[in-house]
Amino acid sequence: MIYILLGILVLMIVAVLLFLRKKKVAVTKKTDKDLSEYTSFAFLPGDSINLPSRPGKELQEVSEPIIRAVHDNMKRAGYILDRNNPDLLVMIRVVEETPPPAYATFPYSAPLPVNPFYAPYAYAGYAQMNAIHNYAGLPTEKVKGSLSVLVIERRGKKILWEGKATDSFYDRNAVPELVSYIDLIFEEYPTEREERRLAYQG
Questions:
Q1: What is the side-by-side order of every strand in the sheet holding 80-81?
Q2: How far apart are CA 40 and CA 80, in angstroms?
Q3: What is the pLDDT of residues 170-195, one digit of tens each?
Q4: Which of 41, 46, 149, 190 falls 20 to 30 Å from 129 in CA-CA distance?
Q5: What is the pTM of this model?
Q6: 62-87: per-residue pLDDT in tens?
Q7: Which residues pair with residue 41 across a beta bridge?
Q8: What is residue 117's three-state secondary structure?
Q9: Cα(82)–Cα(110) distance, rounded to whole angstroms?
Q10: Where are the domains positioned within the chain?
Q11: Which CATH class is domain 24-201?
Q12: For the segment 28-61, what is each residue's pLDDT rounded down to a tens digit?
């Protein structure tokens, strides 16, 4: 009898942990198109990502790992990096209180340089992407420090998919925790993940 009770308790704990884990992210597919039919991607560049608890260290210790994590997850999803003629464009959005951006940030109205950590992955024609048709319809995030990843069709200039953390990453002090948020978001990405992952690893 005691083993049955222990088994039930373990199952309940696992269920709660899974629920809490899933609650951290929310995803929205905004198209009926099959995202596995696209083959390439590049980034729309943005400003540096800051952590209030680690001022002055955002470039090396925060921005680079987050951008790299999104890049790696797109590669695992089966896409190749093509900075000149990508099918998809990836934008990282962070709600934060910052001074005017030092680097090119959507919408690209000011002639600013590309953030050096985006430079290896940035779409060469990013300045043409000032109008993304359904960007204005996105809800305004209320949680400072919330992070979302947008996947945009370059030709149609439309958002196809959005994945976001449902709480503030400002509460996370360790960069590996931030990277795990990105990985958790991409666990919900709607492609044939296993086949693409095997191809990526091969």
A1: 25-29, 158-165, 147-153, 88-94, 40-43, 80-81
A2: 5
A3: 655 567 777 887 888 898 888 754 45
A4: 190
A5: 0.74
A6: 788 889 999 999 999 999 999 999 99
A7: 81, 88
A8: coil
A9: 24
A10: 24-201
A11: alpha beta
A12: 777 888 898 899 999 999 877 766 655 555 545 6
